[in-house]
Amino acid sequence: MMIRIPIVVGAIFMAGSAGAVPVNLTGWIENGFQGNAGAGTWNVLVGNDAVRQTTNGDPTVFFNPGANSQGTSLAGTITPESSGDNDFVGFVLGYQDGELDSANADFWLIDWKQQSQNSGGQNGLIGLSLSHVTGDIRNGPNATNSFWSHTNTVTEVQRATTLGSTGWIDPQIYSFELTFTDTLIEVFVGGFLELSYSSTDHGSLFTDGAFGFYNYSQAPVLYAGITQDVLPPDPDPNPDPSVVPLPAGLPLLLAGLGSFAILRRKKSKV
Q1: Which H helix or E strand runs over 206?
Q2: Is this model's pTM higher than 0.85 or not?
Q3: pLDDT, tens digit (0-9, with 9 covering 90-100), for 101-136
């Protein structure tokens, strides 16, 4: 099962097939760090496929409760609109309602910081990265000691290939696309693969859950033009070795040879 989200800098590039449809965000809700409802203020805009986050506060996510996003393709744009801050924007994957206030969290965080910064003795690093969020968030340390520095309940597993130490630019528009299956997480930026993490690296299949937007100490940020499409099933990981597929051009070649043989027979009768 698959979900796709390339992030492309500059000109807007919308991925996905012609079957992609706008996502209606009116049923999406906010969760705040350790139960802090209102850690983020998410305002759905006219058209219902765009949302602006306007609170500079604790980690906050905006997501579709009860949704399972594996198996769909999601695309859109993200614009950090403030020139007076330099913190985190991003996404969550496999998120369940209440996990930012859970004693047993298990979801994935893709966050992107504009500049490195020390806060409360903890260093938040510039760049794009993937982290696994697990464990007791409800009774764990504060956000500065976990989400800011990627420690404790937030385990960073990979930094982006070229953007691992490069921050976002404001007020730049970025279009995005992400791949998320039960065996693979990939993030493309500008058409280039920046993050690729497999369940083999993780040691088990990725759990399903909602796709969501993520902010931490950064506002305002606009997510817009969100579309969704259903992807075909993943290829069979264990194909039958006794079945040997024919080359794609073989049927045409055989047809051509048959016609040539018929023509030869007709000429021989002349």
Answers
A1: none
A2: no
A3: 999 999 999 999 999 999 989 999 999 999 999 999
Q: Which two tokens stand for residue 213?
A: 């937007």
Euclidean distance between CA atoms 81 and 15, whole angstroms: 23
In the block, which residue shows the tokens 């859950």?
209
CA atoms within 13 Å, Cβ hemisphere of 13: 15
Do 221 and 61 touch, CB atoms closer than 8 A? no
- Of the candidates 182, 185, 213, 270, the one whose C-alpha atom is nearest the C-alpha of residue 79 is 213
User: 264 in helix, strand or coil?
Assistant: helix
* 130-154 b/e (C-beta count within 10 Å ≥ 16 → b): bbbbbbebbebeebbbbbbbbebbb
pLDDT digits (tens, 9 = 90+) for 17-42: 457 889 999 999 999 999 999 999 99
